[in-house]
Design goal:
Layout (H helix, E strand, L loop, with lengths): L8 H10 L10 H13 L3 E4 L5 E5 L11 E6 L21 E4 L2 E4 L6 H15 L8 E6 L7 H5 L9 E4 L7 E6 L1 E10 L2 E3 L4 E9 L17 H16 L2 E8 L9 E8 L3 H18 L8 E6 L5 E3 L1 H13 L3 E5 L7 E13 L2 E10 L2 H17 L3 E4 L13 H14 L4 E5 L5 H7 L4 E4 L4 E2 L7 E3 H15 L6
Helix pairs in contact: 1-3, 5-6, 5-7, 7-8, 9-11
């Protein structure tokens, strides 16, 4: 397969540089130090705030001093997911990339283009000597993926620009002007251990090979949730064969649709073959239900060493039944914007640890009242199963502003560059624009970016030609903001 050139070269060179720097969420010290040195080495005003957000200011190029200050903003952290069994340490190892046709991918890990490609575009502008623009504030925020800490903790006055372009969207040709707010709901199911029944067959049942993806942007795509499939099997076998649970470790990050998970279980030796047959039937059923989205779904059983204890059965059954009814997926579609998800929930992870089974979920909605209702529904299911639970404060959505002057200029710029209309949309994922618009209510904002697929999973990939398109749009927009 022929591969495309990595253009614009300056952007992809910058992206290659930051992919050498470890930057997991909540562990961004190395990338913060890298950007601080980057700005200072260019002789530009560089500042790091109390939580690690970086701002680098660049004066206007000659002849463009009259333009208003523009803020370019992206986040430095990345979701750290890898294929099962890969020997890779996100805290020390560089991301290894390769070209597959028109796509840039990583070898077995997330690519980091969410939002490393936005960071790279800002760096390319900062180091440029031949690109026209007005005064710039390039802002790099921390911890967007796991808590929006950078945007949440940013103090008023850190940014001074009138217009903000967020470079964290994932479909070229789309300009975003609103996003969902969200909150996480966690639960803990208490249990006691009891002696494992005699004459039991112990096995590990594992669900794997699912597509996964972003729990906001991909929630509408009917992708299966590994936790839900595993729970379906467990409840069926509890009712049919008295299955007992010794351990469960399923799912991953709160903002990723779970791709895999497992449980350590036991059943009477006499029903071993029937349980295996039932699992095969379940796989066939789920493959049919998700025939277009989960072609690589697998579920396996393998014999494991006998365990001495299992979870007490009554509480385990109650927990599994409770988790089966915890809502997962789209809950309501938007009534004002066709095809736009209003409210959803993601059952992200289930893990037995330290005497409890801890469950993490996340709820999203473009309406605060609907998000609160979704969280309450999830809590009700948890509590009926005997869990204690809480919903975090969460983060706000970014309200639709169709009369935005920046939006008008961005649309006209896109039409001028490409001779076609862009789409103007809201996004069901969370963007830092929601929090920033609360702290800076007078800043006019839009968000756009190149096309990404498979974000928050090892299948994350960047459509290379769209980087050039976004770059051309951005450069044209920068010399027309405030002039129309």
């Amino acid at each position: 397969m022929n591969s495309v050139a990595l253009e614009p070269k300056v952007v992809f060179d910058c992206f290659a540089e930051i992919n050498k720097v470890p930057r997991p969420s909540k562990k961004e010290e190395k990338i913060v130090a890298f950007l601080k040195k980057f700005g200072e080495d260019l002789g530009l005003e560089t500042q790091v705030d109390h939580v690690g957000n970086v701002i680098i200011r660049k004066p206007a190029t000659s002849g463009y001093e009259h333009l208003p200050m523009v803020i370019l903003q992206s986040h430095v952290d990345m979701v750290c997911e890898k294929v099962a069994g890969l020997d890779f340490n996100f805290e020390t190892d560089p991301i290894e990339t390769y070209i597959d046709g028109e796509w840039l991918k990583a070898k077995g890990t997330t690519l980091g283009a969410d939002d490393g490609i936005g960071v790279a575009m800002e760096m390319a502008l900062l180091k440029s000597t031949d690109i026209a623009h007005g005064p710039l504030e390039c802002v790099f925020t921390i911890d967007e993926e796991t808590g929006l800490t950078g945007a949440m903790e940013m103090k008023p006055g850190f940014m001074t620009g009138k217009y903000l372009i967020n470079l964290d969207s994932e479909d070229e040709g789309q300009i975003f002007i609103s996003c969902a707010g969200g909150a996480g709901t966690e639960a803990e199911y208490p249990f006691v251990e009891e002696a494992a029944p005699a004459d039991s067959y112990f096995f590990k049942v594992q669900v794997k090979g699912l597509t996964g993806g972003h729990s906001g942007d991909n929630i509408k795509d009917r992708r299966a949730n590994a936790n839900k499939i595993l729970l379906r099997f467990l409840e069926n076998q509890m009712a049919k064969h008295g299955l007992r649970i010794a351990d469960i470790q399923s799912g991953g990050l709160h903002n990723a649709i779970p791709r895999d998970g497992y449980a350590i279980c036991c059943v009477p030796v006499s029903v071993k073959e029937q349980v295996c047959a039932d699992l095969n039937v379940l796989v066939a059923e789920v493959r049919e239900e998700f025939s277009q989205t989960e072609p690589n779904l697998e579920a396996t059983m393998e014999t494991v060493e006998a365990q001495t204890t299992v979870m007490e059965q009554a509480s385990a059954v109650r927990m599994v039944k409770s988790l089966r009814v915890v809502h997962n997926g789209v809950f309501e579609m938007d009534q004002d914007m066709d095809g736009f998800v209003q409210t959803s929930s993601n059952l992200a992870s289930i893990r037995k640890q330290n005497g409890v089974v801890r469950v993490i979920t996340s709820q999203r909605s473009s309406l605060l009242s609907a998000r609160k209702n979704m969280s309450a529904i999830v809590r009700a299911a948890f509590e009926l199963g005997g869990a204690t639970c809480k919903t975090a404060d969460g983060y706000p959505g970014w309200k639709l502003s169709p009369s935005s002057p920046l939006l008008k200029t961005a649309v006209e710029s896109y039409k001028r560059v490409f001779d076609k209309e862009p789409q103007v949309l809201g996004i069901h994922a969370g963007l830092e624009c929601g929090l920033l618009s609360e702290k800076y209510p007078d800043i006019d904002m839009v968000s756009f970016g190149p096309t990404l697929r498979g974000v928050h999973s090892p299948d994350e990939r960047l459509l290379i030609p769209t980087v050039q398109m976004v770059w051309e749009h951005l450069l044209d927009l920068l010399v027309h903001i405030g002039q129309d």
